[in-house]
Predict the 3D structure of the following.
Amino acid sequence: MIQTTTQLQAKLMREYYQDFSRYAKGKQPSHKVAWVTAFTPVEILEALGISYIYPESYAAVTAASGKEQALLNESERNSLCPDCCSYSCCIEGSLITGTGPRGIPPKPDVLIATNNQCDTLPNWWNILADRYQVPLIVLDYPGEGMERESAYPYVEGQHKDLIRRMEELSGNKLDPDRLSELIGNSRQSVSAWERVCGYPAVKELPPTLLFDAISFLITSRCKPETAELYMLMEDELKELPDADRSRPALFWLGYPLWYHKDRYLSELLKDFRISGSNYITWWSLDYSGDTAMEQLFSAYNYTFLNLKQETKTARLKECIRRSGAVGAVTLHNKSCKCDFVSAKDIDIPQAELEIDMIDREFLDMERTERQIEILRESI
Amino acid sequence: MQILSFSGFIPEQICDTVRFTGYPGDQKISHYCGYAADFISQVLDDPEINGAVFPRTCDSSRTMKSYMEGCGKFIYPFHVPARQDDLAVSMLSQTIRDYQNAVERYYGVTISEADIKERIRLVNERNQALSALYDRLDELSYYSYLEQIHSLLQKPLREQNVIEPDRAAGIGKRVYLTGSFLCDARLVRTIEDSGLKIVGDDLTESKRLFSAPPVSTEGDLYVSIAESMLKDRLSPTQNNFSAILRKDKEELTKKQVNGVIFITQKYCEPYDYLFYVYQKMLEEMGIPCLKLTRMDSTDHKNAETVIEAFVDSL
């Protein structure tokens, strides 16, 4: 039976949140639970039947439901510095108060953090380890800065060590064929998503849809329904009217604003259209290689934020070129300096905004309006 | 060769570097560690400095290279593993080799095995001498002790002769310093002038500098250096907060500390996260804590006021 995008999204959401619901009702999760960062090789966990939860993603959901400010204040009241990543402040507030839009996530059996995105996340996972007193595994990805011949054995060794420890935790034995199948699913999800990402440049399509839809690539990339969902989405996007070329195209350089109903400053950008964004390309992981170990290495060692500056600049410029944007809204995100530093060599007119993707009170609206006005004049 | 090094993770056994202590720089980057920004300023502006080496251990240091590229100097990011197991030792030993090769290529020098062995011996001896001083902090001026270390770290290893610091009687409430590099030793003078007695620390240039196990000159030298570095008292950037808490708790108890001063830089996430669990540990131990956040490597604003208030609270 052919399903609709709505049905597929509902199914993926239901599966992802099933342990939240059980936990909220006082029941134990159906499987062992890992809390993971957004670029964790979850194919390994999925193959071993371990549930994985993304606290970053849950912080975004919390802000989208308008409940973040009280939680941010609570974490600050408990001495977590508000300069820290607001994903962590929001979740810590949630754990302190025991509240969240879907309750609090089920207690982890293991914490897994990677540094292929930033070095802040492993630090955050340390405070979670202190709270829950469960094992913390940090996966260290040297990235493009280290020669492949040195980096590969190091990363492969860590992946094998992760498999061994997760086999012990789950009581299951890894089936190599199953792992390859899941990596294949991820590859298909990425491929289908990349086609979807081309549409904001040519169709009348606000970025909201893609900012929300990428959550499935983050939380469910190795499930077959994710590729299916994006293929159906593409069919729907083809039917949209062509982009209104009379409005200048802008590139959204930074995170979605999770607290905003449209995920971007739609009220200030009515005269523009957003034709692209770097955030929606971050999970375009490259699973190339002959073996499962090589594929996982390629995908997770060479994530966008783990590349050299010149590679990041080249990729960003290509992304912007393909979007046809003549200007950019660049977010100096309080919570993620790695992101805005990667955009430092972009040479189209930009409005550089001091902002946060979770904390709505961080934005100085008057100043932002002036910056957008200057951008409008300069393009 | 005048290479400015950003942290204690740069192996002194390979070649001399000038340890960054502070610089009144004009690099200002949003939400970016002021200490790291001042390091970038010195590399770019100081004609005496012709190279920079820094670990990729936090979000500021991992993006540092992008601000220094193209300056025509030797710019070397040094990958320090985020874990401490055998895999990490093996990887770090290779990183140390790569660093040596890069220095040799850029500066046209040869670093022999004998050179490294000699430097291992000198580092071991210096650390032993500093450790002996640390054990006698009760009778020494901590300011004099720390000033000496800052001065030593600016010099070539062969000139790093440890001398006896000024003496200071062991009176006053007993405090422990922890945090990142204490760039501005004036802060220590302010603490001592306020009547507090500094009896220990977990600072990167003091306890963490010399508490690494001595490096063996037997076997693979690079593996020995890597093992020693990773068995050092840990930095929060190495993602083992529980080990830091355990070791500091032991020392705080042993030294009967009355208060802790936690020094950090604005926008330094590793220490901000560590503080969150550290202050909980101190609360459980009944030890008051002062968090002193500095804006950059030369910031000394309001230090007297907040320290005086802390003294009153003790």
Observations:
- Chain A is about 50% helix and 10% strand.
- The radius of gyration of chain A is 20 Å.
- Chain A touches chain B through 48 residues (CB under 8 Å).
